[in-house]
Amino acid sequence: MVSIKSVSDYRYDINSLKKHGRSFYWASFFLPRKNKQIAGELYSICRYFDDLADCSSENLTEEIKTEYHKIISNESNEINKFFSKNNIRIAILGDLVNGLIKDQVEVRIDTETELIEYAYEVAGTVGLMMLPIILTDNPEARKHAIDLGIAMQLTNIARDIYEDAKMDRLYLPNEWIGDITIENLVNIEKIEPLKVKTVIKRLIQLSNTFYKNGFSGFKYIPFKTRLAIFISAQVYKGIGEKIKKNHYRYDLKRIYVNNFEKLWITLVSIPKFFLIKYIYKNYTPVRNTFRNENL
């Protein structure tokens, strides 16, 4: 039996964002202090569940469900109080939990639609939960926030193919990869580089569609919180740009954006920030509506 940290013992980790969410931590310096603190608290909660889901090689589905149920059934629970205080629908956290539960068993995804649904559950939900924190209450902003989160998760997946494969997780849709197996991805000498390159390119192109959808909704975000979200997204998008510059090559070495590159992306993003509404005008429907999207 695996010993897990119960939500009853959960405490806000003030350093969670700094330790684990480096891209958003970098951008968070452009948030007002109060909003930055609340965003850090949300990240700490999401990180608690992420760590819970990955704390063992055993299937922790029931334990994760139990901990989530403890939250929603107890109004005095710290996490429940956080959601109520900040006007965030706790059912959206439930969608995130569902995504983490999917990671508890062998991960194989059949279709692009399934990939997008998973990306919504583990990241689009975070975009949705962030809206009240960045003072955005227009219902039209929801689809854009979700799509920005999905874009970031697709970037993650493109970056972490090898690391995920080692954990028996294959997020690349079967309808994309054909006869590529997880064994091929772990044993790189057994793979045809061009096949994986084509899939990685398709994934980055799909993420860019979702980034554009996310950026087209920035008009709904108040000016004082808008820049931080834009820089965070641009830094994350920069990972995809590096993958592109690497010619979409499948590599065992993880691609990341260093501090100098983050600084450069930040400086380049500021002029673009003032032109967002002219560069990103339209929303392109590329997915289904999710159950809790319009709560």
* Terminal Cα span: 37 Å
**Globular, elongated, flat, extended or rod-shaped: what is the shape?**
globular
Count up the helices: 15
Indicate the mean pLDDT: 92
Q: What is the CATH T-level topology?
A: Farnesyl Diphosphate Synthase
Q: What is the assigned CATH homologous superfamily?
A: Farnesyl Diphosphate Synthase
Task: Name the CATH class.
Answer: Mainly Alpha
Proportion in helices:
55-70%
**Which structural class do you get from the secondary structure elements?**
mainly alpha
Give your account of this protein's structure.
- It is a single chain.
- This protein is mainly alpha-helical.
- The protein has one domain (15-279): Orthogonal Bundle (Farnesyl Diphosphate Synthase), CATH 1.10.600.10.
- 62% of the residues lie in helices and 1% in strands.
- The protein has helices at residues 16-20, 22-27, 33-54, 61-72, 78-85, 90-102, 112-130, 141-159, 161-166, 174-177, 182-186, 193-215, 223-245, 259-273, 276-279, and strands at 107-108, 169-170.
- Strands 1-2 form a two-stranded parallel ribbon.
- The radius of gyration is 19 Å and the shape is globular.
Labels describing this entry:
Farnesyl Diphosphate Synthase, two-stranded parallel sheet, 15 helices
A few lines on this structure:
This protein is mainly α. The chain is 62% helix and 1% strand.
Task: Give the secondary structure arrangement, pairings included.
Blueprint: H1 16-20, H2 22-27, H3 33-54, H4 61-72, H5 78-85, H6 90-102, E1 107-108, H7 112-130, H8 141-159, H9 161-166, E2 169-170, H10 174-177, H11 182-186, H12 193-215, H13 223-245, H14 259-273, H15 276-279
Parallel strand pairs: 1-2
